[in-house]
Amino acid sequence: MSDNPPLTDEELSRLRLGPEGLPPDLAAAFRNRGGRPKADAKRVPISLRVDAEVLAAFKATGPGWQTRMNEALAKAARKLRAA
Question: Region annotation Disordered: residue ranges (predicted)?
Answer without folding.
Answer: 1-20
